[in-house]
Every structure is written in C-alpha cells, then in structure tokens.
Amino acid sequence: MSDTDAQNMAAWTTYGAHQLARAVKLPELDGWDWDVPDAGPGIEVFGDVRGLRVLDLGSGLGRHAAYMAALGAQVTAVDSSPTQHERAAARYPATRGLRLECADAADHLRAAGPYDLVYSVSGLPFTDPRQLLAALANGIRPGGRLIFSALHTNSDGRGPSSEVASRPEVLRLPGTTEDHIVHMWVLSPQLWEDLLGEHGFILESVTAIDSPQPDNSVSYRLYAARRPERVPSRPRSRSLPPPTAALGVGVIVQGADGVLLGRHRRGTWELAGGSVEPGESFAEAAVRELYEEAGLLADPGGARVLGTLLDQVGDIVPVTVPVLVTTWSGTPQQREEAVGSWRFWPLAALPQPLFVPSAQCLTAWNPSLPLDHPPAHVQPYASRGW
C-alpha cells in the first residue's frame, strides 16, 4: 500500500469511527444523487439494472448499494475502511442482493469475476487512477459500463489539476470543525478521457453536476464509459520475432471457468506456449511449456493439435500451432519471471490486451469469440496427436 493510500484509509477510518460514535440514523435514499443533493442526473443513467452483476467502489455507508440492490441488481459493495464497512454491515446485515466487503478496490477486482456495471459515487478519485483503471479494464466484461462521479472544482473554487497527480483536499468530520487531509486525483475531463482510453475504455459522456447553492463553488463531473464489446490484441514489442520463435505452440487450457491466461511483464495476456524443441511433437511441446510456465501437468496423448497458423510479421512468417488441453492436474502458478498472474478467464470476459498469437490461436479454436487481431491463415487438422 502506498503512503497516499495509507493516509486516505486512516482518514476514512477516522471518519467512520466518528460516525459510529455519533450513531446518526440517516434515512434511506428516496432518489439517486452523486454527492450533490438535488443536482445532476439520477438513477436513469444506469438504465435497467435487473439481474446485472454490479460493483460499488468506495461504498461507505452502503445506501447507494442498497438502493441499487432494491432495483433487482446483484450488488457487491467494497470499501477499504474497516469502520466504514462496519457501519454498512450494521445497517444492512442481510439485505437481499447486497454483499458487503472490506477490501482494497484493485485487489478485489483482480480476484473477482467480471462485472456488468461498476459505479462509484465520488470514491474512485481517492485511488491512483492508473492503478485502479488497470484493474477495472479486466474487472468489467466486454460491453460492460463504468460510471463514476469525480470532483472537478472544490468548495473553495479550486479547479482540476493539469497533470495526473494527487493533491490534498479537506475531509471534515460531520458535526465538528475538525478537518483531515485526504489525497485526491482531481483531474480535468481531458485527462480522465485520456486515462480511460489508455486502459481500453470508450468515454461516452461527461455531465456537469454543480451545486444548486449560488454561494457554493463545488462542482463534480459524471463520467460514463464502456469497455468495448471486442477484445483487442497487440504484440509484446515492435521488434520482429527471433528465428527461434518462428515455430511455436499456443496451449489452450479449457476448464469449467474458461481458458487459462497469464500476464506477461510487457502487459499482454497470453496462453502458455513457446518454441518447439528438436525431436518434440507439437503435443509434447505444449505439455512441456504448460508445466514450465504455469505448473500444470498434462498428458501429450490427451492433447489435441488443432492446426497451424501462418502469420506475416515483416519478412518473417511465424508458424503457431494451437493445442487444446482439457485434462490436467495441479494449480496454476508462476514458474517463470516473464509471465505470471495465471488464472482462468470466462470466454465472455477475456482480458485485454491479448498477445496477438494467443488471440489468433483462440479464434482458430473458437471463431465466434469477439477478438480483434491481424488475420492469419489457418490450416485445421482433422486428426489428434501430431
């Protein structure tokens, strides 16, 4: 945890403890607001949420999450402050459709399955957006939405920053004059749009939410973004593949939870795989690479060689052989420095960006997958083994 995160958590934990001691009974929400009462759009910005898997980031007391659950959504409400979580748990001990969790937002997103909708009522800017958006990029299913409000101008009239950096803002304990310093990323709409675009989101709208009180300068912006329906792919680098990598295998490990993918240190998600060694069959190369990279054991006799893919990268024509493995033993683990974070991903929510050869292998196996990649010539095999 960074120093900024630790300071923010300490401030919000103090805030939660103060509110617990006051035992103030706030009413349930009778309408949606984005931290500015009687201003801005309401619940209509979400559309029909019935049956959606929804995440509330920085949920605090949990009133918005409970409101969303009452509309028929399956809501997980996450807050990193133990006392804020305690307040919510005491207020909503057993609310249908609502699950409360005390956790770091990025940690939760990395461990949880993809959500249909993620929203945050002014909570997202308390975390470094580069860290959080990286987790959100794969924590929202393709086609899913991210909607959040963010401070634009504070009550003293200070507008947004011109660089992606945090700045101190004042958190006042209710009913007192006691102030605590929190660190926020108060950014211009252009910076938010740039950050969202860098992490694979399409910004669909920005709505100003101004205080209706003429003597209050506070202003927020409501950002609505969407993860594209199709999953992009890219090379690891601009360098041409070395000759030793001109013939390789890509291992599609299919299980009940989807397909196995690991994250390369250069940022792409990819299948286990690598070069074929002299004397190996494609199936033997596949099960060797699977064990060396992800620690899973498989039998070459049970591996299915799907065909060959011919790509064109500069003057080099790489040949990749996709191999399907459906039976194995062991638990995925990082065994090599270059690739880790192995996990099974649902086919309806594959992470982005994929490594180009891995995307090509997946498309050769399942052409209906919504993957974007350079075309490759596919020669399928009718038989097993090879």
UniProtKB/TrEMBL annotation:
Keyword Methyltransferase included in the entry's annotation: no
InterPro entries referenced in this protein's UniProt entry, alphabetically: Methyltransf_25, Nudix_hydrolase, NUDIX_hydrolase-like_dom_sf, NUDIX_hydrolase_CS, NUDIX_hydrolase_dom, SAM-dependent_MTases_sf
Top-level division of the source organism's lineage: Bacteria
Stored Gene3D superfamilies: Nucleoside Triphosphate Pyrophosphohydrolase, Vaccinia Virus protein VP39
Alphabetized GO MF terms: hydrolase activity; methyltransferase activity
Keyword Hydrolase: yes
Keyword terms: Hydrolase
Residue stretches making up the Nudix hydrolase domain: 242-368
Cofactor requirement: Mg(2+)
Family named by the database record: Belongs to the Nudix hydrolase family.
This protein's name: Putative MutT-family protein
Organism: Streptomyces zinciresistens K42
Organism taxonomic ancestry: Bacteria, Bacillati, Actinomycetota, Actinomycetes, Kitasatosporales
